[in-house]
Design brief:
Blueprint: H1 12-15, H2 28-40, H3 80-83, H4 96-107, E1 114-118, H5 125-137, H6 156-162, E2 169-173, H7 180-189, E3 200-205, H8 212-223, E4 229-235, H9 243-246, E5 250-253, H10 259-273, H11 279-289, H12 293-306, H13 317-324, H14 329-341, H15 344-356, H16 361-381, H17 390-402, H18 405-424, H19 428-442, H20 448-461, H21 480-492, H22 496-504, E6 507-512, E7 515-519, H23 529-540, E8 545-548, H24 558-575, H25 577-585, H26 600-608
Parallel strand pairs: 1-4, 1-5, 2-3, 3-4, 7-8
Antiparallel strand pairs: 6-7
Helix pairs in contact: 5-6, 7-8, 10-11, 11-12, 11-13, 14-15, 14-16, 14-19, 15-19, 16-17, 16-18, 16-19, 18-19, 20-25, 21-22
């Protein structure tokens, strides 16, 4: 196995155009049939007449239908996922880095004793393990070959491994063999050499299902196995494997297959099957597969069976959408157009129409998110929009030019939030309607950047802010500063009830040492003298004389001053040009006071301290 000089990183089937063993290798159908016969036995051969016997002419019976013929049992249909399972590394699509690494390891005789294949379902983990088993045990058509990344497929080990009957290649499903006893059988068997192959290979599928004790029992054998043993593990949940196992294996992360590659692969299979399929239909299937070849082939199998016989079994995009419950692309674009134009009535009608056709509300949101994503990517990259048809490409390209980036990002966030709500809502249709209507009305809100520019422009055009007025002078005979200090001393001394009364009710007329003359609002009629006298005596150590003058007019109480200051601040704030511009941009908005901000008097005391 050598690489081409002009293409050192190429693979054997890429560098050697004459490489074509198709005529010498059995077909996939022949291998499948051979495997069935190896497991369940071949049908009994037809009886042969002895040479001496002369055939006796009998009347020719009427033709018997094929399904009713007793000597010709109908072969079961093989699904596409089994029929087109890769038999060589050249048929394994989308995993070129892994194949190149294996090719270099085989060429340099640096083969690990344990391999771990990880990845999502249907990307070829188990198939890759079987291909590695063939590559390591292939002996070539002449029986003298060695390990190769390009197994011949015609030697006895290759054929036996493909048919699943090789005695030295043992496959175990860890989902049904999870215990220590199952692993103990492997540990006992690895001591014996391979019967007929070069390596004894253990393929353990879904290895993460092994129990903790089973993993611990396998560790020593996995770290130092005999030279003739190779372990091939496959799993979809590699995070469940112990670190001690990961450190003893050579790991290959099989990648998701790109949708474009899947579409080409499905088109080739349709050609081999003699099925006509639209490019858009194959694109829908490839996207629905989410990177899994097996999932895509299962959907393709279903789409071929779902195709209308009146159209000669043609797989059309409309049929595939109907089968998968997806929205028609033109209907998706119409929904988005109604949403961007603010046409609520038309948007609701479009939602009801799609729902009546069997499109799930979650699929509607997801299709709209897909369109917004493609528009945004095309807008940022400056390239052409990813679309199947020219009509769709033109429409999305027009939106990519006309819609501002900030609006696209905001629409994506609204749709994403709506998607989460629809997924968990008791009535998905109602939730989808409300989510799309919310996104529709959000289109009318001004862009934050544009709003900031409007406010700045309004502020520059507004008249200058009027000068601040002077502070109100204290009432005659009252010393507001000393009164506030006295209230603060009472409050700090723990006399909170007295401090609250002094702050809320007392309008001081005269405050001297041991004398407090005050007035109160007529609404206060309770007797506060004992409480205040006791609190003042406790704080100052002096007996106070308290005189209430019902007819007197003292300076406003601390609470009245704070309320007046708050009202003045709000009036001043409303008069500010920036606030007026914001209120004009958002009709019905209200100014809410900062409740976390301390009262004016308390804030002044804190500043003085």
């Amino acid at each position: 196995m050598g690489d081409s000089p002009d293409k050192p990183d190429g693979l054997p089937w890429e560098s050697d155009p004459s490489h074509d063993a198709a005529e010498a290798q059995p077909s996939a159908a022949e291998r499948e049939q051979a495997g069935q016969e190896a497991l369940f036995g071949a049908p009994a051969p037809a009886p042969q007449l002895a040479p001496a016997e002369e055939p006796v002419e009998k009347p020719v019976p009427a033709p018997v239908p094929r399904a009713a013929a007793p000597d010709a049992p109908a072969q079961p249909y093989r699904v596409l996922a089994r029929k087109y399972r890769p038999q060589t590394f050249s048929e394994l699509i989308g995993q070129e880095p892994m194949v190149r690494t294996l090719a270099n390891a085989i060429a340099r005789d640096r083969l690990a004793h344990a391999f771990l294949m990880t990845g999502v379902r249907g990307v070829g983990k188990t198939s890759t393990a079987r291909l590695i088993a063939k590559a390591l045990n292939c002996i070539g058509p002449d029986g003298n070959g060695g390990p190769t990344i390009d197994p011949c497929g015609v030697c006895e080990p290759c054929v036996a491994i493909a048919e699943g009957r090789h005695i030295d290649v043992i496959e175990m499903d860890a989902a049904s063999h999870t215990g220590v006893d199952d692993v103990r059988e492997i540990i006992e068997a690895v001591r014996y050499s391979a019967v007929s192959a070069r390596y004894k290979i253990y393929i353990v599928d879904e290895v993460h299902m092994l129990s903790r004790n089973a993993f611990n029992a396998l560790l020593k054998t996995l770290e130092e196995p005999p030279a003739h043993v190779k372990f091939l593990f496959a799993t979809t949940e590699v995070e469940k494997l112990p670190v001690t196992v990961l450190s003893r294996t050579q790991r290959f992360d099989l990648r998701r297959i790109p949708a474009e590659m899947l579409q080409e692969h499905f088109a080739l299979i349709c050609t081999k099957e003699g099925v006509t399929a639209d490019a858009e239909a194959l694109s829908i299937i490839a996207n629905a597969a989410e990177g899994s070849v097996r999932d895509g082939l299962s959907i393709l199998d279903q789409a071929i069976a779902h195709a209308d016989m009146d159209s000669e079994g043609r797989v059309t995009a409309e049929r595939v959408r109907s089968m998968l419950g997806l929205a028609d692309k033109s209907a998706q674009r119409r929904l988005l157009a109604h949403l961007l134009a603010g046409e609520g009535k038309a948007l609701l009608a479009g939602i009801d129409e799609q729902y009546a056709l069997g499109v799930e509300p979650l699929a509607m949101l997801r299709s709209l998110m897909d369109i917004v994503h493609r528009i945004t990517v095309a807008q940022v990259s400056g390239g052409e929009v990813d679309a199947v048809s020219a009509e769709e490409r033109a429409q999305l390209g027009e939106w990519a030019t006309a819609i501002p980036p900030a609006q696209l990002h905001r629409l994506w966030q609204l749709l994403l939030k709506g998607y989460d709500e629809v997924r968990s809502a008791p009535d998905p249709l109602v939730s989808a309607r409300m989510a799309l209507l919310r996104a529709l009305h959000a289109q009318e809100l001004p862009d934050p950047g544009r709003l900031a520019r409007l406010i700045e422009d309004a502020a520059t055009r507004a008249p200058a802010t009027p000068a601040e007025g002077t502070a109100a002078s204290d009432a005659p005979g009252a010393n507001a500063v000393k009164w506030e200090d006295l209230v603060a001393r009472v409050e700090d001394g723990g006399q909170h009830l007295a401090a609250g009364i002094m702050r809320l009710q007392i309008r001081p007329i005269a405050v001297e040492d041991g004398l407090l003359r005050y007035a109160r609002d007529p609404q206060f009629r309770d007797d506060i003298v004992p409480t205040l006298r006791e609190a003042l005596a406790t704080i100052t150590g002096t007996r106070w004389l308290l005189e209430e003058d019902p007819e007197g007019e003292g300076s406003p109480s601390i609470a009245e001053r704070e309320e007046a200051a708050q009202h003045s601040a709000e009036t001043e704030a409303r008069a500010h040009p920036l606030v007026q511009a914001a209120l004009a941009a958002f009709p019905g908005a209200e100014i809410i006071a900062d409740r976390d901000k301390p009262p004016v008097g308390l804030q002044q005391r804190r500043n003085q301290a």
